[in-house]
């Protein structure tokens, strides 16, 4: 009971914080971090010591898995060059620059532990990127690049952190050892992820019960990450590969009922976990400050230098990576030179989050031979990077996006493409109906033909703008009023005892499904 109470309190606060953010028109991650920072100093408020293993094994896998499930594999492949330049190249560049800056400021610290901190603060957070980028309304390609970067960069950083930690505690680390570690972590993660997609895809295809499908989807990220970590491979890479492969095939693996239930389930899980994560990050402030014993002047200088290194390296890397690649004719033909607005907004969106804090808490307690070092300082620096990038850059990202006036995705082109494909789909449906028309009454066939025509007309109506109500919108408005009236009748019949509760539940379920279809069609 006592251990469960703080969890319920944190979830309740995270939910209220997210509701407050929506009411104020602010980004929920920013509000929750600030709320956590404030609550960390409230006397008597429950404090929680963040366990890095809980974050990296318990919280991160499901969030990475659902993000990978929703990532378009074709879009990921089309943007693989910028994604890898950020997720691998930029992470290594940032880690070495931050490590060098820290070593110059604190020469008594071995470069290996400085590099470990660089690996800790180098990767932007998957949760923050997804939560903020979509909420701000960035162009689709920018969101794809940021999400793709955040799915892969944790693996790069954690492998580098593992190598740097081995060197810190006195293990011999040469080129061969690094190569073996990278191959085992990355290559092993890819193989385990692909095998996981094969096994769990087979199980999804065989399962027909939506509840079992839903339960399996919850097990998948943990089963994959546990297997990968047991074999000393990268659990992050394994989960991402499994999610990408299964997400691409999900329409063929699941029934309609399973897809609807799994979609609703993961939306709830992501909402709760994201809220909990950002709140917990803020709540760590008091504990982080408690362990600090550095002189204030030295602390301020070191913190400012690391923050500047983290912020500037992203832009220093982005502009050459964006434009030097276009000197290659093949790249230039496939991907013309973009506006400078693109690297600016991607650079500004480099927010760190809970993975950085968890990795910092996983730093070794001592150096080689048990020699102490200012571990609390390194944890503080990681925490400062999180707060600066998440609150500072995250809060100003909408303003930067508006000032840059980024070219938005063309809704007319999207609607035109959707209408064209819907036309083809309707034609295929009509042809299949013609083949089966003799097996059903004529009235049923006519009703189905009208339904197909209505779907086609609805797709083309979206091209007409929003100046006036379309026939489909009028249908949705009137049908909603009719559904409300039907609900009232069923509820009154249940209250008067004319129908049992089970009849009411089934009737409400049918009406709820129809209403949800109306709402989706009206978007």
TrEMBL record:
It is found in: Cell membrane. The chain crosses the membrane at residues 54-76, 83-104, 110-133, 182-203, 215-247, 268-285, 297-321, 342-365, 377-400. It is a multi-pass membrane protein. Residues 12-401 form the Cation/H+ exchanger transmembrane domain. InterPro entries: Cation/H_exchanger_CPA1, Cation/H_exchanger_CPA1_bac, Cation/H_exchanger_TM. Keywords: Antiport, Cell membrane, Ion transport, Membrane, Sodium, Sodium transport, Transmembrane, Transmembrane helix, Transport. It comes from the Bacteria. Gene3D superfamilies: 6.10.140.1330. Na(+)/H(+) antiporter that extrudes sodium in exchange for external protons. Belongs to the monovalent cation:proton antiporter 1 (CPA1) transporter (TC 2.A.36) family. This is Na+/H+ antiporter.
